[in-house]
Amino acid sequence: MTLIHFVILALVQGITEFLPISSSAHLILVPEVLGAEDQGPLIDVMAHAGSLLAVLVYFWRDIGSVAKGKLALLQGRITPGGRLALLVAASLPPVILLGGALFVFDLVDALRSPMVIAISTLVFALPLWAADRYAPQMKTTEEMSFKDATLIGIAQMFALIPGASRSGVTMTAARALGLTRTESARFSMLMSVPVIAAFALISVIQLAGEANPAAGLGAGLLVAALSFVSALGAIAVLMKLVDRVGFMPFVIYRFALGGALLIFAT
């Protein structure tokens, strides 16, 4: 891949990672559209590392509260930060178990096709619209139950389908359960921290098996930096946009993208 390909890849990863439009779909399509080879595990690791750092920076207060809360849990005390940590933990088992099974049985690539992306982009736009249109906005993360967190975690399993969007399905589930738009986006992004970290770990394992794992390190660092900057901007835009106008702009985008992909795939 050329330098311009890496730049485009990093910007696409950063911008789409936390928007409900599926970053994995866009990352699969970038090499297809540009006519380039797959970027490889090193670039995947660096792109996701940049996105992960963006979440940690934007939500540094929440992350700090969670970290302190974990220490308090070890002392037998439950603080708001500790409870938030437990809610995130309750949401993780479904996607980790299913994702691990797909990885072990080498089924991840079986879903990476333009047709699958097109269909899931369209199909999962409908519940996002319906949940945002009809569900009440009455809960914050402080009022969430562990049942709510588990149900959002079950919804996150659909994120393993390219085009479904991890942030999209988790925000949809959160809104359907009555969380406000801003709190749905906030909890979805906090959920992303261990998920992105797990994905990066898988990529590191793949990278360790390569003959020359250090190849393209300079390009990888550039990708990480650009992914961080673009992801940070995307998070800021998302948090302001959903509070003012909701998720409809992303629903419209998904229908446009899905339609274009159907034409491309046929």
Description:
The chain has 13 helices and no strands. By secondary structure, it is an all-alpha fold. Helix 3 packs antiparallel against helix 11. The protein starts with a helix and ends with a helix. The mean pLDDT is about 85.
Q: Total helix count?
A: 13
**Rg (C-alpha, Å):** 18 Å
Task: Tell the overall outline.
Answer: globular
The amount of helix comes to over 70%
Secondary-structure-based class equals mainly alpha
> How many β-strand runs?
0
Q: Which range does the strand content fall in?
A: under 5%
- Arithmetic mean of pLDDT: 87
What is the structure about, briefly put?
This protein is 75% helix and 0% strand. The protein has helices spanning 3-16, 23-34, 41-58, 60-74, 80-91, 93-104, 114-123, 125-134, 146-156, 166-176, 181-208, 217-244, 248-265. The model has no long low-confidence stretch (mean pLDDT 87).
Key structural traits:
about 270 residues; mainly alpha; globular
Helix and strand arrangement:
Layout: H1 3-16, H2 23-34, H3 41-58, H4 60-74, H5 80-91, H6 93-104, H7 114-123, H8 125-134, H9 146-156, H10 166-176, H11 181-208, H12 217-244, H13 248-265
Helix pairs in contact: 1-2, 1-3, 1-12, 3-11, 3-12, 4-5, 5-9, 7-13, 8-10, 8-13, 9-10, 10-11, 11-12
